[in-house]
Write a structure and sequence with these properties.
globular, TXNDC15, Thioredoxin domain-containing protein 15, Thioredoxin_domain, Glutaredoxin, alpha/beta, Thioredoxin-like_sf
């Protein structure tokens, strides 16, 4: 009888359980940030320095520089937000104010910055930024893309749009752990 020296079962499965992720995100420094929110890129900007909430998009926080008028194009604004040369990750939602599916997705998407505080989240109105929609292949709304720097890496492709499915999508693509900011609980 020949006895083979086999490693313990735990060692045999070690290579099988090691998962590689499509995107490796650098974590942004969240020190000193106390409000994690989705930023919204709009064609028109507010006239004051106060945060403005549009009644048609109650989940929206305007995306603007508090002391400067934005003079650049929407593409330049998006590239600046995405940090084209960076390796941090951003999740971008293409929505329209009139779309019922965008409206039902809003509370779930708005919760993501608290679940993944080391990532950036942006929403942009696809009807106001058709060139961006075309550039990134958005033919229907809502549409969610995961970016690393300015490069689109993955598209959320499920009809069930909940905090759980969005969190699973981000976790499966990046390996990022869910970390509810300001809470000891995980989602």
């Amino acid at each position: 009888m020949v006895h083979a020296d086999l490693p313990p079962a735990e060692e045999q499965n070690a290579t099988e359980t090691a998962k590689t992720y499509k995107v490796t995100c650098d974590r942004r420094n969240v020190t000193g940030i106390d409000n994690f929110a989705v930023q919204v890129l709009n064609a028109s900007q507010p006239s004051s320095d106060d945060d403005v909430v549009d009644s048609h998009k109650p989940w929206a926080v305007w995306f603007y520089s508090s002391n400067e008028a934005l003079c650049s194009s929407a593409l330049e604004d998006l590239m600046e937000f995405l940090n084209a040369n960076g390796t941090e990750c951003s999740v971008v939602l293409f929505f329209t104010a009139w779309c019922q599916f965008s409206a039902s997705l809003a509370p779930h998407f708005n919760a993501l910055p608290r679940v993944f505080p080391s990532m950036h989240f942006l929403a942009l109105d696809a009807s106001q930024h058709s060139s961006l929609s075309t550039r990134f292949g958005t033919v229907a709304v809502p549409n969610i893309l995961l970016f690393q720097g300015a490069k689109p890496m993955a598209r959320f492709n499920q009809t069930d749009r909940t905090l759980e499915t969005l969190s699973s999508f981000i976790g499966n693509q990046t390996g990022e752990d869910r970390d509810v900011w300001g809470s000891d609980e995980t989602v």
